[in-house]
Amino acid sequence: MPDGKIPFTLEEVTMQTFFMFGNYTSESLKLLSTKRTDLVKKEIEKLKGEVCSMHAMLGQYDLVFNVKFPGIEEALKASVKIARLTGISFVTYPAIEVKIFDDLTKKI
Fold first, then answer.
1. I need a labelling partner for 79 at 20 to 30 A (CA). Which of 18, 48, 52, 104 fits?
2. Domain total for the chain?
């Protein structure tokens, strides 16, 4: 950067954003509850993660969670652990904010 400043904070670098897309099974639908939602949040927190938002969806996926983890290992563990606990299958993708993407691609 021309002024020597980094365009993002250390927290943004140390905590990575992931989107977890989930699909219910017929069995997992029978167990819908706020208690299970709280259990999922606690499991994410145990892995040093943070839940930014959780949404129910229509379409290809039933759920999407916006979460932050220190790294991909924690995200992978969370995806597997939550699937085992709830019967909900997850596909987890890493993501970066568009501003950071724009700053990174300026150099290309």
1. 104
2. 1
Give the distance from CA 83 to its chain's centroid: 14
pTM, rounded to two decimals: 0.83
Residue 51, domain extent: 12-105
φ/ψ region of 93 (left if φ > 0, alpha if ψ in -120 to 50, else beta) reads beta
DSSP secondary-structure letter at 6? -
List CB contacts of 95: < 8 A, sequence separation 6 or more: 17, 18, 19
Q: What pLDDT digit, counting tens, does each position of 20-69 carry?
A: 999 999 999 999 999 999 999 999 999 999 999 999 999 999 999 999 99
CA angle 67, 82, 91 (to 5 degrees): 65
Distance CA 106, CA 75 (A): 28
Specify if 42 maps to a domain: yes
